[in-house]
From TrEMBL:
Compartments in which it is found: Cytoplasm, Cytoskeleton, Microtubule organizing center, Centrosome, Centriole; Cytoplasm, Perinuclear region; Nucleus
Domain Cyclin C-terminal: 290-413
PROSITE patterns registered for this protein in UniProt: CYCLINS
Source organism: Hypotaenidia okinawae
Homology family: Belongs to the cyclin family. Cyclin AB subfamily.
Domain of life: Eukaryota
Protein name: Cyclin-F
Keywords recorded for this protein, A-Z: Cell cycle, Cell division, Cyclin, Cytoplasm, Cytoskeleton, Mitosis, Nucleus, Ubl conjugation pathway
Length: 420
């Protein structure tokens, strides 16, 4: 029966998911991606079987359960009813006690707003955040940088606070995308450009966030560096990465059936499921890593930008995704250079202040090569064309929308001589 198959398959999946979490102790817990809501309402739900089996495993006294408890708590937190959410917080608490740093950070995040109403309590909360950041939780590091950028300095001198943020920016490393072409013998920059341009189209059509898009492209590039992909399966890789990333950060996910439809049914449901598994395996569960968007949010807390300049900043960050040659720069440096470029293009006085230099560790001279590359690649180089000889301008079209004040239509000239 269908119910019997769900039971058998769910128990098998539970065994392998548990094994995967135990073997992958260095990465953030990830198996919740496969069993998160929505669940089937028919009564024979394989996801529900996996959940109950893993929950039973966690109740065993000798079970190493921190990461699995985190996954179960994540699943419950995505349901709408209050009872399940309350249970999820209890699971996060237990997971945190078991040493799961990710659970500790999520608990901090859930308590942050309440702590802000009391200065003493908030200072204590920030010290806790600093502790998580020191233990290597990058989400805590970014949150700490945002807090320091807002002027919440943990009782530190302003200089010490800036140094802390600077360390986070300087620790950012480039993801060398050029090595993609060492692994992908039959691939060139135009083929990658076409794939990313299409993913931007999908993100725009589905109203996915800029973060989702940056995460998706990051997963695509990291996978391409690791495993050869035939040209005929590049689109499958791209859409599978987007399915994974929407599951990771959104309540509204891209379903597998819809993803298959978006490829004009070029691939089957089973092809996409298999590719998702291969991606998560190759990336060792590391789906969410720091992106340009994360550093952009820190910088946006440090400086006050006019709305049009903020939209231009976002526009430049998304345009940077298309160009492989920008891979020599770290996400933090790209975010800083994109901010500087946006401010210069909008003729702002003192585009790179001493505060920005102190908080990022980047001087104006440090950023010049990256700024010039961004300006050339994003606004002046010829745009590749598809097989119909139509220019690929999905990012530009995305930012021609009214919500971005049609910033994509803005004329971009040469850089000011004063920058050089």
């Amino acid at each position: 029966s269908e119910e019997g198959r769900a039971e058998v398959n769910g128990l098998k999946a539970s065994h392998f998911f548990s094994l995967a979490e135990r073997l992958n102790a260095c990465a953030a817990p990830f198996i919740w991606l496969f069993i998160r809501p929505p669940w089937s309402l028919s009564g024979s739900c394989c996801k529900a079987v996996v959940y109950e089996s893993l929950k039973a495993e966690c109740q065993l006294e000798k079970a190493q359960k921190g990461s699995i408890l985190h996954c179960l708590a994540k699943v419950l937190s995505l349901f709408e009813d209050e009872e399940r959410r309350k249970e999820s917080l209890e699971m996060f608490e237990e997971s945190s006690k078991q040493g799961c740093l990710n659970s500790s950070y999520l608990l901090w995040e859930s308590n942050r707003k309440a702590a802000m109403s009391d200065p003493g309590r908030y200072l204590q909360s920030l010290r806790k955040l600093r502790d998580y950041a020191g233990k290597g939780c990058w989400e805590a590091q970014i949150a700490l940088a945002k807090a320091c950028g807002n002027g919440n300095q943990l009782g530190l001198e302003a200089k010490s606070s800036s140094e802390m943020v600077s360390q986070i920016f300087q620790a950012s490393l480039p993801i060398s995308k050029q090595s993609i072409f060492t692994v992908q013998k039959g691939m060139n920059e135009t083929m990658r450009y076409i794939l990313i341009d299409w993913l931007v189209e999908v993100a725009t059509m589905k109203d996915f966030s800029s973060l989702c898009l940056h995460m998706t492209v990051g997963c695509v590039d990291r996978y391409l560096k690791l495993r050869p992909v035939p040209r005929t399966r590049l689109q499958l890789l791209g859409i599978a990465c987007m399915v994974i990333c929407t599951r990771f950060i959104s309540k509204e996910i891209l379903t597998i059936r819809e993803a298959v439809w978006l490829t004009d049914n070029t691939y089957k449901y089973e092809d996409l499921v298999r590719m998702m598994g291969e991606i998560i395996s190759a990336l060792e569960g590391k789906i969410r890593i720091p992106t340009i968007v994360d550093y952009k949010e820190v910088l946006s807390n440090i400086v006050s930008l006019e709305r049009r300049t903020l939209h231009l900043y976002s526009f430049i960050c998304e345009l940077s995704l298309l160009n492989t040659s920008l891979c020599v720069y770290s996400p933090a440096r790209l975010a800083a250079a994109a901010l500087l470029l946006a401010k210069v293009l909008h003729r702002q006085a003192h585009p790179w202040t001493s505060q920005l230099a102190e908080c990022t560790g980047f001087s104006l001279e440090d950023l010049l090569p990256c700024v010039l590359s961004l300006h050339q690649k994003c606004f002046h180089d010829d745009v590749p064309k598809d097989y119909r000889q139509v220019s690929l301008t999905a990012v530009k079209q995305r930012f021609e929308d009214e919500r971005y004040e049609e910033i994509g239509k803005e004329k971009v000239g040469e850089l000011l001589v004063s920058l050089c």
